């Protein structure tokens, strides 16, 4: 691998506990959430394939697949975004970042810190209305679907959104701190 293509997280994005206890705990939680999100992608694929086969070949569609898929996609994003933040894998113009980094590593560290801080604000703005919606859906036993035909509670999906936004805030703040430390240490 050339110098331009070295990957920062060769040793993973979970630092050792002795080096960074907060980073280790946060990285472990994010990795576990990402693993659950990955498993959910597989389960969703199987459900959709089963519905397509049942619908087209057996004339037996699975009720509620579109509703589950719509909510599961959002849940999967919120399960996987904290790990993406910690790994610096969110969508961005990497070619531009690398070019700036060659000229000034300190500038990139500052840009990354600003990006992480703005991300923390965005996820805080998502968490702000998500938490009350989660608690309301929990206490009122809110569901989606057609009562008497097929229903599923909304609180797990709302809870995943709130949890994912909260962990994403922590991940973004942690990354911002790391970038600012890098800014102070870079030449």
UniProtKB/TrEMBL annotation:
Which residues span the membrane? 22-48, 68-86, 107-128, 155-174
* Limits of the Tripartite ATP-independent periplasmic transporters DctQ component domain: 44-180
| GO cellular component terms, semicolon-separated | plasma membrane
Q: How does it sit in the membrane?
A: Multi-pass membrane protein
Keyword entries, A-Z:
Cell inner membrane, Cell membrane, Membrane, Transmembrane, Transmembrane helix, Transport
Q: Which GO terms describe its molecular function?
A: transmembrane transporter activity
Primary site of residence: membrane
Localization in the cell: Cell inner membrane
Family statement: Belongs to the TRAP transporter small permease family.
Q: How does it assemble?
A: The complex comprises the extracytoplasmic solute receptor protein and the two transmembrane proteins.
Sum up the protein's function in the record's words: Part of the tripartite ATP-independent periplasmic (TRAP) transport system.
**UniProt name for this protein:** TRAP transporter small permease protein
Q: Which source organism?
A: Maliponia aquimaris
């Amino acid at each position: 691998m050339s110098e331009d293509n070295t990957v920062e997280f060769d040793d993973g994005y979970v630092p050792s506990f002795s080096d960074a206890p907060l980073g280790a705990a946060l990285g472990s939680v994010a990795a576990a959430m990402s693993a659950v999100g990955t498993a959910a992608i597989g389960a969703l694929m199987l459900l959709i394939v089963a519905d397509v086969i049942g619908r087209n070949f057996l004339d037996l569609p699975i009720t509620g697949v579109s509703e589950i898929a719509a909510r599961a996609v959002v849940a999967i994003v919120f399960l996987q975004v904290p790990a993406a933040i910690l790994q610096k894998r969110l969508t961005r113009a990497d070619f531009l970042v690398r070019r700036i980094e060659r000229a000034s590593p300190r500038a990139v560290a500052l840009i990354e810190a600003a990006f992480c801080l703005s991300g923390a604000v965005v996820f805080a703005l998502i968490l702000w209305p998500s938490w009350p919606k989660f608690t309301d859906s929990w206490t009122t036993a809110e569901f989606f679907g057609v009562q008497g035909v097929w229903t599923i509670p909304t609180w797990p999906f709302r809870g995943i959104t709130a949890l994912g936004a909260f962990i994403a805030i922590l991940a973004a703040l942690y990354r911002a701190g790391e970038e600012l430390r890098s800014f102070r240490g870079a030449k």
